[in-house]
Design goal:
Number of helices: 13
Helix content: 25-40%
Mean pLDDT: 90
Radius of gyration: 21 Å
Strand content: 15-25%
Shape: globular
Order of helices and strands: EHHEEEEEHEHEHEHEEHEHEHEHEEHHH
Largest sheet: 8 strands, mixed
Number of strands: 16
Strand order of the largest sheet: 4-5-2-1-7-8-9-10
């Protein structure tokens, strides 16, 4: 009898399929990287390998270019089984369709892949589809151990949604809370989640994310000239992008530029402002993560624009900080409840949620690249938050 098996349930894609989906409107690069970091870290530490059951978190057709999503099977390691399920991607019911497909895939996995030993299941994100698949496995295999990785709380995601979607989300939340009771433990990205979800102290650990140190390039050499202030990520007004753009335009410094990559509902506003102020450079969504990372390394300042007033800020850790801090470039951010205190001595802080405060913070930080704070931030992330260190903590807590 095999001693133990590892199963991942989330939204992973093969490297090839991720590129294909990115070209059609899939923009969850951060989730892809985060999952790969944890899977690779646990596999390296334990010598055991995951099978995985996944459901793509896609925008509905026609925002996403395809209506019928085909199942994709691959093996990320020899003899491993990985699947991203197929489903009908219609508006409002695509998540239900994905959930049903993942439950079916869970049944097939139990039938064809389970080897009767200890089964440890990691579920990525508090979404009904992967949670339902895990609960189906628990029903079929009562001894299975389920661990939920909570990156964000569902009701604080998808800001600016319609009234119908808000109603559907409330219904979905009832089911999620019921399924929560089937889980043996929780890996939380923000400590305040525990109180909100009413999780007993002994059933959760804090792990605000991880970073693959092996993929980090050397810091670029500082050169005089135009100073690039860069924001990359979700371009939604609810995340303060308008505030950043307005603040930048108020700064009378001809030798600075604002570099913006990503996609969201603030795109048109950014484009209009770029026509007025030629220092604003809008690059849109870059499907290659390497292009984004190369651009970050050439910047003089990297900006995280999650707002303190945003309800989600208390219950999430902005994973973008790992990517930013690892470059050695100074990082500018608001003080957020979801960011542990140990990070702040490595960050440049925006004191107030106003355009004036953002502008003042940018002016103060734009020449900070030579101060050493960026280098210290890089060393802190690479030495303390790399995926091996974080996954060692997970393995110890779970008993792997």
């Amino acid at each position: 009898m095999i001693k133990k098996q590892l199963l991942w349930i989330g939204c992973l894609e093969s490297d090839e399929e991720f590129k294909i989906k990115a070209e059609k409107g899939y923009d969850l690069a951060s989730a892809q990287v985060s999952q790969q970091n944890i899977v690779n870290g646990i596999e390296d530490i334990t010598g055991e390998y995951f099978d995985s059951i996944n459901g793509s978190v896609l925008p509905p057709y026609p925002v996403y270019a395809e209506r019928d999503i085909d199942a994709v099977r691959w093996s990320h390691k020899k003899d491993c089984f990985d699947i991203s399920v197929g489903y009908r991607n219609d508006k409002y019911i695509n998540r239900v369709n994905c959930k049903n497909a993942m439950i079916k895939a869970a049944d097939e996995w139990v039938k064809n892949r389970y080897k009767k030993g200890r089964l440890i299941v990691f579920v990525y994100s508090m979404r009904s589809a992967p949670m339902a698949a895990a609960c189906r496995i628990k029903k079929r295999i009562p001894s299975a151990e389920l661990y939920l990785i909570v990156t964000d709380l569902p009701q604080f995601m998808d800001l600016g949604e319609s009234k119908l979607k808000k109603y559907l989300k409330k219904i979905d939340w009832i089911g999620i809370k019921q399924m929560q009771n089937s889980f043996d433990g929780f890996i939380l990205y923000a400590a305040s989640m525990a109180e909100y979800l009413k999780i007993p102290d002994e059933k959760w650990m804090l792990m605000e994310g991880s970073f693959d140190a092996s993929s980090v390039q050397k810091p670029s050499i500082f050169r005089h000239g135009s100073k690039g202030i860069m924001y990359s990520g979700k371009l939604d007004s609810e995340y303060g992008i308008d505030m950043l753009v307005n603040a930048f335009m108020s700064i009378n410094m001809p030798d600075i530029e604002l570099w913006i990559t990503g996609g969201g509902n603030a795109e048109e506003y950014i484009k209009k402002c770029a026509e007025k102020d030629k220092r604003i450079k809008f690059f849109g969504f870059l499907p290659k993560r390497s292009d984004v990372l190369d651009m970050q390394r050439k910047a003089s300042l990297l900006v995280n624009m999650r707002l303190p007033s945003e309800p989600a800020s208390e219950y999430c850790f902005p994973s973008k900080l790992f990517e930013y801090m690892s470059t050695g470039i100074p990082v500018l951010t608001f003080r957020l409840k979801g960011i542990p205190e140990e990070y702040y001595k490595y960050l440049n802080i925006i004191d107030e949620e106003t355009e004036e405060a953002v502008a003042d913070a940018v002016k103060a930080a734009v020449d900070d690249r030579k101060s050493g704070k960026g280098k210290a931030a890089r060393e802190f992330i690479l030495n303390n938050k790399n995926n091996r260190k974080q996954c060692e903590r997970i393995c110890s807590w779970v008993g792997l």
